[in-house]
Design goal:
The complex is a heterodimer of chains A (138) and B (398). Chain A is mostly beta strands. Chain A has 1 helix and 11 strands, in the order αβββββββββββ. Chain A has one domain: Immunoglobulin-like. In chain A, the strands form 2 sheets. In chain A, strands 1, 2, 4, 7, 8 and 9 form a 6-stranded antiparallel sheet that branches. In chain A, β1 and β2 form a beta hairpin. Chain B is an all-alpha fold. Chain B has 18 helices and 2 strands. Chain B has a two-stranded antiparallel sheet with strand order 1-2. In chain B, α5 crosses α9, α8 packs across α9 and α17 packs across α18. The longest helix of chain B has 35 residues. Chain B is elongated. Classes of the chains: A mainly beta (138), B mainly alpha (398). Chains A and B meet through α1, β6 and β11 of A and α6, α7 and α17 of B.
Chain lengths: 138, 398
């Protein structure tokens, strides 16, 4: 009986690890990156930045599509070919579940130098989300 | 006399618990918004001492805070450390709103179930389960540091306790609060004993505390102390209570009819039998930084008001953010939105609530960088002259 209870409790703990979600997570070419970090990119290479967004509070009035990506203080769009990182595919969000959404930003590191990528989600009542990645293209 | 004191002790503790519960409720629900139209409503994240634990990883490695946490969390956590290092887990026993919430339901359960209350979980399982708190704590620190967001808020019953009413608690957190509430009817303080991550931190820190619950020669091992203990610690027969779950509520001290227990230094020195004094001290130490932080926010709002009146820009150009609206920009630089629109070559009838980052959809040159450049040359308070100067400067550059 004791052993069975112990197993149930351990399974609950391990299960809880996987059920933990978060607001926004980023994966650059499959490797997790966190805001505030400097990302080193190679000039001329193509990259995929996967952005996963989970609503961790109820009544979130901000749609995933309203998430803004600002590169060098400009909206990051496919039409902007003069930016240091050129977006090669439009930003399209897909719903993984009711509260989980995902998009993949495909881009090419075009110019060498330093720039920033700011990710913003505005919330009218609470703090919202505003984080920056520092990018160095070599 | 002793019975009167016991009753008094219980009332003081309940009074402090209610006071702190109401205080947190007020801060979280209204916050500076109560004092100013410009103030945003409060948020539990902004004052919770556990926010400091959650943000610690990022603060150490990146020098940044996890979103929604700030220096206030560090200050409230420092207060918590101070009282814990001195007296142990007093915060849990006297202030913690979630602990109080469980305790109040438990009192109801005790009345209904009588001796059957808190008999559901065998002692061996209870002793084993206390280690779950450390698992929960480790899990939260790892996931929060890894994902740079407050992962636990989706499951946090503490958050749900205050934010179910504001509508921002997720169903998962509300469900955990519901289960905790139901369990509290049958078992004393289930969340505190088995799952509370802050309790795990306090449990570790309180090992350093010199003041501990200690029995003395007056103890005749009657067991009334253990029966009163809300976290199920066996007290009689032990010289010093070292159990990390001891919340220094003082129930055992006041329950003992022989004065056989006290909160004291080793060898019974500097014994404190009037535990409420510790509770009042904890309330003061803990509430002061929260009041101060709210005071700072209110003072900031007053300063903004003063700057508005004297025509000084409320923010620097570097502080212009993409999330601001045209109206926000105008307010911060004391200019009408129409004036700003002219400056940025935007249509005069543009909606003042348009976000700055969306202005480039109207005029493709109007990026955030361009706005910052333009506002650098704008002279606030100069009316049309200020706009003209900025425009002249812009034209001469072109």
């Amino acid at each position: 009986m004791k052993k069975k209870l112990l197993i149930v409790v351990l399974l609950f703990v391990f299960g809880a690890v996987y059920s933990f979600a978060c607001e926004m997570t980023f994966f650059l070419d499959g490797k997790q990156v966190v805001p505030g970090q400097t990302l080193s990119l190679d000039q001329g290479r193509s990259y995929e930045l996967r952005v996963n967004f989970v609503e961790d509070h109820g009544n979130c009035p901000v749609e995933p599509e309203e998430t803004a990506f600002l590169l060098a203080e400009e909206k990051w769009k496919t039409t902007k070919t003069a930016l240091p990182l050129v977006l090669t595919r439009n930003v399209v969000w897909t719903d993984i579940s009711d509260r989980e959404h995902e998009t993949v930003l495909v881009f090419t590191a075009q110019q060498t130098g330093k720039t920033t990528l700011e990710v913003i989600r505005d919330c009218t009542k609470k703090a919202g989300y505003d984080e920056i990645f520092y990018i160095t293209v070599k | 006399m002793a019975a009167a004191f016991r009753k008094k002790n219980n009332w003081i503790r309940t009074g402090i618990q209610i006071l702190f519960f109401a205080f947190v409720f007020f801060i979280v629900t209204f916050g500076p918004a109560w004092f100013s139209e410009n103030g945003k409503t409060g948020d539990l994240h902004s004052i919770c001492p556990f926010g400091a634990v959650e943000t610690a990883g990022r603060l150490i490695f990146q020098g940044l805070f996890i979103p929604k946490t700030s220096m206030v969390n560090i200050i409230t956590f420092s207060s918590l450390l101070l009282v814990t290092v001195l007296f142990g887990g007093v915060f849990c026993g006297w202030l913690c709103p979630l602990g109080s919430f469980q305790e109040w339901i438990g009192k109801l359960g005790k009345k209904v179930l009588g001796k059957k209350f808190d008999r559901l979980v065998p002692r061996w399982l209870d002793r084993f389960s206390r280690f779950l708190r450390y698992g929960v704590l480790a899990l939260i620190i790892i996931t929060t540091t890894q994902f740079v967001t407050l992962t636990f808020s989706a499951y946090d019953p503490f958050y749900a306790l205050f934010h179910t009413i504001t509508g921002s608690a997720l169903p998962s957190a509300v469900a955990i609060l519901g289960v905790t509430a139901i369990a509290s009817f049958f078992v004393s303080r289930p969340w505190c004993r088995w799952f509370c991550p802050l309790g795990a931190v306090i449990g570790l820190v309180q090992k350093l505390s010199p003041w501990k619950i200690r029995t003395n020669q007056g103890c005749n091992e009657c067991g009334i102390c253990s029966a009163k203990c809300p976290v199920n610690i066996k007290i009689q027969g032990q010289k010093t209570i070292t159990d990390s779950r001891c919340i220094k509520c003082g129930e055992c001290v006041t329950a003992c009819k022989k004065n056989g227990i006290a909160l004291s230094l080793p060898k019974g020195k500097l014994a404190i039998t009037r535990i409420p004094l510790i509770g009042v001290f904890t309330l003061a130490v803990f509430a002061m930084p929260i009041v101060a932080s709210q005071g700072v926010k209110i003072a900031e709002l007053a300063e903004l008001q003063q700057q508005t009146e004297s025509g000084i820009p409320l923010i620097s150009v570097e502080e212009i953010s993409a999330s601001m609206t045209l109206a926000d920009l105008g307010n911060n630089f004391h200019a009408a939105p129409e004036q700003i629109a002219v400056l940025l070559a935007l249509p005069a009838d543009i909606d003042p609530e348009t976000k700055l980052r969306n202005l480039e959809d109207i005029n493709e040159e109007c990026t955030l960088r361009f706005i910052k450049d333009t506002m650098t040359r704008f002279q606030p308070g100069a009316g049309d002259t200020g706009t003209k100067n900025a425009l002249d400067s812009q034209n001469s550059r072109e």
